[in-house]
Automatic annotation (TrEMBL):
Residues 41-401 form the Aminotransferase class I/classII large domain. One of its GO terms (molecular function) is L-alanine:2-oxoglutarate aminotransferase activity. Pfam families: Aminotran_1_2. SUPFAM superfamilies: PLP-dependent transferases. Its EC number is 2.6.1.2. Keywords: Aminotransferase, Pyridoxal phosphate, Transferase. The keyword Transferase applies. Homodimer. Its cofactor is pyridoxal 5'-phosphate. Belongs to the class-I pyridoxal-phosphate-dependent aminotransferase family. Involved in the biosynthesis of alanine. Catalyzes the transamination of pyruvate by glutamate, leading to the formation of L-alanine and 2-oxoglutarate. Is also able to catalyze the reverse reaction. This is Glutamate-pyruvate aminotransferase AlaA.
Protein backbone atom coordinates (compact mmCIF):
# COMPACT_ATOMS: atom_id res chain seq x y z
CA UNK A 1 0.00 0.00 0.00
CA UNK A 2 1.38 3.42 -0.96
CA UNK A 3 2.03 5.97 1.72
CA UNK A 4 -0.92 8.44 1.81
CA UNK A 5 1.47 11.32 1.10
CA UNK A 6 2.63 9.56 -2.08
CA UNK A 7 -0.87 9.30 -3.55
CA UNK A 8 -1.68 11.68 -6.35
CA UNK A 9 -4.59 13.90 -5.19
CA UNK A 10 -7.86 13.28 -6.95
CA UNK A 11 -9.18 16.75 -7.63
CA UNK A 12 -12.44 18.01 -9.00
CA UNK A 13 -12.42 19.30 -12.55
CA UNK A 14 -11.40 22.90 -13.27
CA UNK A 15 -14.82 23.25 -14.85
CA UNK A 16 -16.22 23.29 -11.32
CA UNK A 17 -13.96 26.10 -10.12
CA UNK A 18 -16.65 28.76 -10.46
CA UNK A 19 -19.57 26.51 -9.66
CA UNK A 20 -21.35 26.98 -6.37
CA UNK A 21 -24.73 25.90 -5.07
CA UNK A 22 -24.89 27.23 -1.53
CA UNK A 23 -28.60 26.46 -1.11
CA UNK A 24 -27.38 22.95 -0.36
CA UNK A 25 -23.90 24.04 0.74
CA UNK A 26 -21.81 23.99 3.94
CA UNK A 27 -24.42 25.65 6.14
CA UNK A 28 -26.91 22.90 5.29
CA UNK A 29 -24.27 20.32 6.21
CA UNK A 30 -23.95 21.92 9.63
CA UNK A 31 -27.75 21.93 10.01
CA UNK A 32 -27.84 18.20 9.25
CA UNK A 33 -25.12 17.58 11.80
CA UNK A 34 -27.14 19.54 14.38
CA UNK A 35 -30.19 17.42 13.59
CA UNK A 36 -28.10 14.28 14.05
CA UNK A 37 -27.14 15.65 17.45
CA UNK A 38 -30.85 15.83 18.30
CA UNK A 39 -31.67 19.51 17.64
CA UNK A 40 -34.85 20.60 15.86
CA UNK A 41 -33.85 22.96 13.05
CA UNK A 42 -36.45 25.17 11.33
CA UNK A 43 -35.55 25.02 7.66
CA UNK A 44 -36.38 28.17 5.77
CA UNK A 45 -33.77 27.39 3.13
CA UNK A 46 -35.36 25.38 0.32
CA UNK A 47 -38.55 25.80 -1.71
CA UNK A 48 -39.53 22.18 -1.16
CA UNK A 49 -43.31 22.43 -0.94
CA UNK A 50 -43.97 18.79 -0.06
CA UNK A 51 -41.96 19.09 3.16
CA UNK A 52 -44.38 21.69 4.46
CA UNK A 53 -47.58 19.78 3.80
CA UNK A 54 -48.29 21.18 0.33
CA UNK A 55 -49.26 17.96 -1.34
CA UNK A 56 -49.10 17.26 -5.05
CA UNK A 57 -52.61 17.22 -6.54
CA UNK A 58 -54.27 13.81 -6.11
CA UNK A 59 -55.12 13.42 -9.80
CA UNK A 60 -51.46 13.73 -10.79
CA UNK A 61 -50.34 11.22 -8.17
CA UNK A 62 -53.07 8.75 -9.21
CA UNK A 63 -52.16 9.03 -12.89
CA UNK A 64 -48.47 8.52 -12.22
CA UNK A 65 -49.30 5.40 -10.19
CA UNK A 66 -51.78 4.22 -12.84
CA UNK A 67 -49.11 4.40 -15.52
CA UNK A 68 -46.24 3.10 -13.44
CA UNK A 69 -46.29 -0.45 -14.81
CA UNK A 70 -46.14 0.70 -18.40
CA UNK A 71 -43.49 3.30 -17.64
CA UNK A 72 -40.59 0.95 -17.12
CA UNK A 73 -39.26 1.47 -20.62
CA UNK A 74 -37.39 4.45 -22.04
CA UNK A 75 -39.48 7.08 -23.78
CA UNK A 76 -38.54 9.17 -26.79
CA UNK A 77 -35.46 11.22 -25.81
CA UNK A 78 -37.39 14.47 -25.98
CA UNK A 79 -40.28 13.05 -24.00
CA UNK A 80 -43.63 11.26 -24.23
CA UNK A 81 -45.89 12.49 -26.98
CA UNK A 82 -48.75 13.15 -24.54
CA UNK A 83 -46.55 15.22 -22.24
CA UNK A 84 -45.10 17.26 -25.08
CA UNK A 85 -48.54 17.77 -26.61
CA UNK A 86 -49.79 19.10 -23.29
CA UNK A 87 -46.81 21.47 -23.06
CA UNK A 88 -47.55 22.55 -26.63
CA UNK A 89 -51.10 23.44 -25.60
CA UNK A 90 -49.75 25.22 -22.54
CA UNK A 91 -47.50 27.33 -24.75
CA UNK A 92 -50.55 28.20 -26.85
CA UNK A 93 -52.33 29.36 -23.69
CA UNK A 94 -49.29 31.45 -22.86
CA UNK A 95 -49.48 32.88 -26.41
CA UNK A 96 -46.04 31.65 -27.43
CA UNK A 97 -46.40 31.43 -31.19
CA UNK A 98 -45.38 28.63 -33.54
CA UNK A 99 -44.47 25.93 -31.03
CA UNK A 100 -44.67 22.35 -32.34
CA UNK A 101 -44.01 19.05 -30.63
CA UNK A 102 -40.40 19.05 -31.87
CA UNK A 103 -39.71 22.34 -30.08
CA UNK A 104 -40.41 20.78 -26.69
CA UNK A 105 -38.00 18.80 -24.49
CA UNK A 106 -39.00 17.05 -21.28
CA UNK A 107 -36.31 16.76 -18.63
CA UNK A 108 -35.60 15.54 -15.13
CA UNK A 109 -36.77 18.84 -13.74
CA UNK A 110 -36.01 22.15 -15.38
CA UNK A 111 -32.57 21.81 -13.78
CA UNK A 112 -31.36 19.14 -16.18
CA UNK A 113 -32.53 21.14 -19.18
CA UNK A 114 -30.93 24.36 -17.91
CA UNK A 115 -27.57 22.58 -17.76
CA UNK A 116 -28.20 20.96 -21.14
CA UNK A 117 -29.13 24.26 -22.77
CA UNK A 118 -25.79 25.74 -21.74
CA UNK A 119 -23.71 22.65 -22.56
CA UNK A 120 -25.09 22.68 -26.07
CA UNK A 121 -24.36 26.37 -26.62
CA UNK A 122 -21.15 27.51 -25.05
CA UNK A 123 -17.53 27.57 -26.09
CA UNK A 124 -14.70 28.92 -24.00
CA UNK A 125 -14.93 32.68 -23.76
CA UNK A 126 -18.63 32.91 -24.56
CA UNK A 127 -20.45 35.17 -22.14
CA UNK A 128 -23.96 34.84 -20.79
CA UNK A 129 -25.72 37.63 -18.93
CA UNK A 130 -27.15 36.27 -15.70
CA UNK A 131 -29.05 38.24 -13.07
CA UNK A 132 -27.64 39.14 -9.66
CA UNK A 133 -29.18 37.96 -7.48
CA UNK A 134 -29.90 34.77 -9.39
CA UNK A 135 -31.08 31.24 -8.87
CA UNK A 136 -27.50 29.95 -8.63
CA UNK A 137 -27.95 27.00 -10.97
CA UNK A 138 -27.82 29.48 -13.85
CA UNK A 139 -24.39 30.85 -12.95
CA UNK A 140 -23.18 27.31 -12.29
CA UNK A 141 -24.58 25.95 -15.56
CA UNK A 142 -22.86 28.68 -17.59
CA UNK A 143 -19.52 27.98 -15.88
CA UNK A 144 -19.87 24.23 -16.20
CA UNK A 145 -20.67 24.70 -19.88
CA UNK A 146 -17.32 26.44 -20.31
CA UNK A 147 -18.77 29.94 -20.60
CA UNK A 148 -18.38 33.03 -18.47
CA UNK A 149 -21.36 34.20 -16.43
CA UNK A 150 -21.54 38.01 -16.44
CA UNK A 151 -23.86 39.31 -13.75
CA UNK A 152 -26.23 42.16 -14.41
CA UNK A 153 -27.78 43.88 -11.42
CA UNK A 154 -31.41 43.76 -10.43
CA UNK A 155 -32.36 47.02 -8.75
CA UNK A 156 -33.92 46.66 -5.32
CA UNK A 157 -35.09 50.31 -5.41
CA UNK A 158 -37.04 49.50 -8.57
CA UNK A 159 -38.78 46.46 -7.07
CA UNK A 160 -35.85 44.28 -8.16
CA UNK A 161 -36.34 44.85 -11.89
CA UNK A 162 -33.18 44.18 -13.92
CA UNK A 163 -31.22 47.37 -14.57
CA UNK A 164 -31.33 47.76 -18.36
CA UNK A 165 -28.42 50.23 -18.38
CA UNK A 166 -26.30 47.75 -16.49
CA UNK A 167 -27.24 45.08 -19.03
CA UNK A 168 -26.20 47.40 -21.90
CA UNK A 169 -22.91 48.21 -20.16
CA UNK A 170 -22.08 44.53 -19.79
CA UNK A 171 -22.64 43.55 -23.40
CA UNK A 172 -19.50 42.57 -25.29
CA UNK A 173 -18.91 40.98 -28.69
CA UNK A 174 -18.74 37.65 -26.80
CA UNK A 175 -22.21 37.93 -25.26
CA UNK A 176 -24.32 35.07 -26.56
CA UNK A 177 -27.40 35.10 -24.40
CA UNK A 178 -29.33 36.65 -21.54
CA UNK A 179 -31.04 34.78 -18.72
CA UNK A 180 -34.15 36.12 -17.06
CA UNK A 181 -35.86 34.49 -14.11
CA UNK A 182 -39.47 35.67 -14.11
CA UNK A 183 -41.13 35.32 -11.63
CA UNK A 184 -37.90 35.65 -9.75
CA UNK A 185 -36.22 33.48 -7.22
CA UNK A 186 -34.94 34.83 -4.79
CA UNK A 187 -36.59 38.29 -5.00
CA UNK A 188 -40.23 37.46 -5.79
CA UNK A 189 -40.27 40.09 -8.55
CA UNK A 190 -42.65 39.79 -11.49
CA UNK A 191 -41.68 41.65 -14.65
CA UNK A 192 -44.21 43.90 -16.43
CA UNK A 193 -44.79 43.46 -20.16
CA UNK A 194 -43.34 46.89 -21.02
CA UNK A 195 -40.11 45.92 -19.30
CA UNK A 196 -39.95 42.56 -21.12
CA UNK A 197 -40.36 44.40 -24.41
CA UNK A 198 -37.40 46.65 -23.61
CA UNK A 199 -35.32 43.63 -22.76
CA UNK A 200 -36.31 41.95 -26.01
CA UNK A 201 -35.21 45.03 -27.91
CA UNK A 202 -31.70 44.61 -26.47
CA UNK A 203 -31.74 40.91 -27.39
CA UNK A 204 -32.93 41.75 -30.90
CA UNK A 205 -30.26 44.42 -31.47
CA UNK A 206 -27.44 42.22 -30.22
CA UNK A 207 -28.69 38.86 -31.49
CA UNK A 208 -28.86 37.36 -28.02
CA UNK A 209 -30.75 34.20 -27.16
CA UNK A 210 -33.22 34.75 -24.34
CA UNK A 211 -33.31 31.98 -21.71
CA UNK A 212 -36.45 32.48 -19.64
CA UNK A 213 -36.86 30.54 -16.40
CA UNK A 214 -40.60 30.69 -15.67
CA UNK A 215 -40.92 27.87 -13.14
CA UNK A 216 -43.05 30.06 -10.79
CA UNK A 217 -45.39 31.39 -13.47
CA UNK A 218 -48.52 30.33 -11.56
CA UNK A 219 -47.31 31.23 -8.08
CA UNK A 220 -48.62 34.80 -8.23
CA UNK A 221 -50.21 36.91 -5.49
CA UNK A 222 -52.68 39.81 -5.41
CA UNK A 223 -54.32 38.84 -8.70
CA UNK A 224 -51.13 39.41 -10.71
CA UNK A 225 -50.76 37.79 -14.14
CA UNK A 226 -47.65 36.48 -15.85
CA UNK A 227 -46.49 37.17 -19.38
CA UNK A 228 -44.05 34.81 -21.05
CA UNK A 229 -41.32 36.86 -22.70
CA UNK A 230 -41.42 34.40 -25.61
CA UNK A 231 -44.99 35.48 -26.35
CA UNK A 232 -43.81 39.00 -27.17
CA UNK A 233 -41.44 38.25 -30.02
CA UNK A 234 -41.30 35.78 -32.86
CA UNK A 235 -38.07 37.26 -34.21
CA UNK A 236 -35.84 36.47 -31.21
CA UNK A 237 -34.73 32.96 -30.27
CA UNK A 238 -36.25 32.18 -26.87
CA UNK A 239 -35.88 29.12 -24.68
CA UNK A 240 -38.49 28.91 -21.92
CA UNK A 241 -38.26 26.62 -18.86
CA UNK A 242 -41.03 25.36 -16.64
CA UNK A 243 -42.17 22.20 -14.87
CA UNK A 244 -44.25 20.48 -12.22
CA UNK A 245 -42.00 21.33 -9.27
CA UNK A 246 -43.56 24.52 -8.00
CA UNK A 247 -46.89 25.16 -9.75
CA UNK A 248 -47.91 21.52 -9.13
CA UNK A 249 -45.97 20.91 -5.92
CA UNK A 250 -44.24 17.83 -7.31
CA UNK A 251 -40.54 18.70 -7.21
CA UNK A 252 -39.58 15.17 -6.25
CA UNK A 253 -41.05 13.79 -9.47
CA UNK A 254 -38.35 15.65 -11.42
CA UNK A 255 -40.53 16.66 -14.34
CA UNK A 256 -39.70 19.81 -16.26
CA UNK A 257 -39.74 21.10 -19.80
CA UNK A 258 -38.05 23.48 -22.19
CA UNK A 259 -39.66 25.19 -25.18
CA UNK A 260 -37.63 26.55 -28.08
CA UNK A 261 -39.50 29.33 -29.89
CA UNK A 262 -39.11 32.48 -31.98
CA UNK A 263 -36.49 32.87 -34.70
CA UNK A 264 -35.11 29.36 -35.23
CA UNK A 265 -33.89 29.51 -38.80
CA UNK A 266 -30.32 30.42 -37.79
CA UNK A 267 -30.32 28.02 -34.83
CA UNK A 268 -30.50 24.63 -36.57
CA UNK A 269 -27.03 23.70 -35.40
CA UNK A 270 -27.74 24.61 -31.77
CA UNK A 271 -31.00 22.66 -31.88
CA UNK A 272 -29.09 19.67 -33.25
CA UNK A 273 -26.81 19.99 -30.23
CA UNK A 274 -29.81 20.00 -27.89
CA UNK A 275 -31.22 16.90 -29.59
CA UNK A 276 -27.86 15.19 -29.26
CA UNK A 277 -27.62 15.89 -25.53
CA UNK A 278 -31.23 14.80 -25.02
CA UNK A 279 -30.41 11.52 -26.79
CA UNK A 280 -27.23 10.95 -24.79
CA UNK A 281 -29.17 10.89 -21.54
CA UNK A 282 -31.73 8.59 -23.19
CA UNK A 283 -34.84 10.19 -21.68
CA UNK A 284 -36.30 11.84 -18.59
CA UNK A 285 -37.93 9.93 -15.76
CA UNK A 286 -40.89 8.29 -17.55
CA UNK A 287 -43.38 7.75 -14.67
CA UNK A 288 -43.32 11.47 -13.90
CA UNK A 289 -43.81 12.36 -17.55
CA UNK A 290 -47.23 10.69 -17.27
CA UNK A 291 -48.22 13.37 -14.77
CA UNK A 292 -47.58 16.27 -17.14
CA UNK A 293 -50.67 15.96 -19.31
CA UNK A 294 -52.85 15.50 -16.23
CA UNK A 295 -51.33 18.54 -14.57
CA UNK A 296 -51.62 20.87 -17.52
CA UNK A 297 -55.07 19.68 -18.53
CA UNK A 298 -56.78 19.99 -15.18
CA UNK A 299 -57.78 22.39 -12.45
CA UNK A 300 -55.45 21.10 -9.82
CA UNK A 301 -52.88 23.85 -9.84
CA UNK A 302 -52.16 26.35 -7.16
CA UNK A 303 -55.17 28.72 -7.38
CA UNK A 304 -56.57 27.89 -3.97
CA UNK A 305 -53.22 28.52 -2.26
CA UNK A 306 -52.69 31.93 -3.84
CA UNK A 307 -56.25 33.25 -3.37
CA UNK A 308 -56.46 36.31 -1.06
CA UNK A 309 -57.06 34.06 1.94
CA UNK A 310 -55.05 31.11 0.59
CA UNK A 311 -52.33 29.50 2.65
CA UNK A 312 -49.40 30.83 0.60
CA UNK A 313 -50.78 34.38 0.49
CA UNK A 314 -51.34 34.40 4.25
CA UNK A 315 -47.85 33.10 4.92
CA UNK A 316 -46.26 35.59 2.53
CA UNK A 317 -48.10 38.46 4.21
CA UNK A 318 -47.21 37.29 7.68
CA UNK A 319 -43.53 36.65 6.91
CA UNK A 320 -43.25 40.05 5.21
CA UNK A 321 -44.95 41.86 8.08
CA UNK A 322 -42.88 40.20 10.77
CA UNK A 323 -39.51 40.49 9.05
CA UNK A 324 -39.96 44.18 8.20
CA UNK A 325 -40.83 44.94 11.84
CA UNK A 326 -37.27 44.05 12.84
CA UNK A 327 -35.14 47.20 13.17
CA UNK A 328 -32.69 47.58 10.26
CA UNK A 329 -34.44 45.02 8.06
CA UNK A 330 -36.25 46.08 4.89
CA UNK A 331 -37.78 44.02 2.11
CA UNK A 332 -39.49 44.40 -1.25
CA UNK A 333 -42.81 42.57 -0.90
CA UNK A 334 -42.79 39.61 -3.29
CA UNK A 335 -45.43 39.53 -5.99
CA UNK A 336 -44.73 35.90 -6.78
CA UNK A 337 -42.84 32.70 -5.86
CA UNK A 338 -42.05 31.42 -2.37
CA UNK A 339 -39.35 33.66 -0.94
CA UNK A 340 -38.47 36.90 0.82
CA UNK A 341 -35.06 38.44 0.07
CA UNK A 342 -34.68 40.97 2.89
CA UNK A 343 -31.93 43.53 3.28
CA UNK A 344 -29.98 44.12 6.47
CA UNK A 345 -28.71 47.59 7.33
CA UNK A 346 -24.96 47.03 7.60
CA UNK A 347 -24.56 50.12 9.80
CA UNK A 348 -26.64 48.35 12.38
CA UNK A 349 -25.40 44.83 11.68
CA UNK A 350 -21.71 44.95 10.73
CA UNK A 351 -21.63 41.72 8.69
CA UNK A 352 -18.52 41.00 6.66
CA UNK A 353 -19.05 37.40 5.68
CA UNK A 354 -22.71 36.55 5.20
CA UNK A 355 -22.16 32.78 5.24
CA UNK A 356 -20.55 33.06 8.66
CA UNK A 357 -23.45 35.25 9.78
CA UNK A 358 -26.03 32.67 8.66
CA UNK A 359 -24.02 29.91 10.33
CA UNK A 360 -23.98 31.82 13.63
CA UNK A 361 -27.73 32.34 13.37
CA UNK A 362 -28.18 28.61 12.79
CA UNK A 363 -26.05 27.67 15.79
CA UNK A 364 -27.66 30.21 18.10
CA UNK A 365 -31.31 29.91 17.08
CA UNK A 366 -31.63 26.69 15.04
CA UNK A 367 -33.08 28.57 12.07
CA UNK A 368 -31.66 27.81 8.64
CA UNK A 369 -31.61 30.52 5.96
CA UNK A 370 -29.48 31.01 2.84
CA UNK A 371 -27.04 33.90 2.64
CA UNK A 372 -27.40 36.42 -0.21
CA UNK A 373 -23.98 35.51 -1.61
CA UNK A 374 -25.45 32.07 -2.34
CA UNK A 375 -27.46 33.86 -5.04
CA UNK A 376 -24.43 35.67 -6.43
CA UNK A 377 -25.33 38.85 -4.57
CA UNK A 378 -22.05 40.59 -3.89
CA UNK A 379 -22.74 42.58 -0.70
CA UNK A 380 -23.08 40.64 2.58
CA UNK A 381 -26.41 42.31 3.35
CA UNK A 382 -29.18 39.96 2.17
CA UNK A 383 -30.59 36.57 2.96
CA UNK A 384 -33.35 34.43 1.54
CA UNK A 385 -36.22 33.14 3.63
CA UNK A 386 -38.71 30.54 2.40
CA UNK A 387 -42.23 31.28 3.68
CA UNK A 388 -43.52 27.73 3.38
CA UNK A 389 -43.89 26.76 7.08
CA UNK A 390 -47.25 27.17 8.80
CA UNK A 391 -47.97 30.54 10.40
CA UNK A 392 -47.09 29.40 13.90
CA UNK A 393 -43.69 28.08 12.79
CA UNK A 394 -43.04 31.23 10.79
CA UNK A 395 -43.80 33.40 13.82
CA UNK A 396 -41.47 31.33 15.94
CA UNK A 397 -38.68 31.36 13.34
CA UNK A 398 -38.85 35.10 12.67
CA UNK A 399 -38.89 35.88 16.39
CA UNK A 400 -35.69 33.83 16.70
CA UNK A 401 -34.13 35.75 13.80
CA UNK A 402 -35.13 39.01 15.53
CA UNK A 403 -33.59 37.84 18.82
CA UNK A 404 -30.37 36.87 17.08
CA UNK A 405 -30.15 40.22 15.27
CA UNK A 406 -30.71 42.05 18.54
CA UNK A 407 -27.78 40.24 20.15
CA UNK A 408 -25.65 40.61 17.00
CA UNK A 409 -26.19 44.37 17.08
CA UNK A 410 -25.07 44.55 20.67
CA UNK A 411 -21.94 42.54 19.72
N1 LIG B 1 -35.45 27.54 -11.61
C1 LIG B 1 -35.73 28.20 -10.49
C2 LIG B 1 -35.82 29.69 -10.53
C3 LIG B 1 -35.90 27.50 -9.28
O1 LIG B 1 -36.16 28.17 -8.16
C4 LIG B 1 -35.78 26.10 -9.28
C5 LIG B 1 -35.91 25.33 -8.04
O2 LIG B 1 -36.00 25.84 -6.95
C6 LIG B 1 -35.51 25.45 -10.48
C7 LIG B 1 -35.35 26.21 -11.64
C8 LIG B 1 -35.35 23.96 -10.56
O3 LIG B 1 -36.54 23.38 -10.93
P1 LIG B 1 -36.72 21.80 -11.13
O4 LIG B 1 -37.21 21.24 -9.83
O5 LIG B 1 -37.75 21.70 -12.21
O6 LIG B 1 -35.42 21.24 -11.53
Amino acid sequence: RADAAALRAVRKSHKLAEVCYDIRGPVLQRAKQMEDEGHRVTKLNIGNLAHFGFEAPEEIVVDVIHNLRGAAGYSDSKGLFSARKAVMHYSQQKKIAGVGIEDIYIGNGASELIVMSMQALLNNGDEVLVPAPDYPLWTAAVSLGGGAPVHYVCDEQAGWLPDLDDIRRKLTPNTRAIVIINPNNPTGALYPTAFLEQLLEIARQHQLIVFADEIYDKVLYDGETHTSIASLADDVLCVTFNGLSKNYRACGYRAGWMIVSGEKRHARDYIEGLDMLASMRLCANVPAQWGIQTALGGYQSIEELIAPDGRLTRQRDLAYELITQIPGVSCVKPKAALYLFPKLDLNMYPIEDDQEFILKLLEAEKVLLVQGSGFNWKQPDHFRLVFLPHEEDLRDAVSRIARFLESYRKG
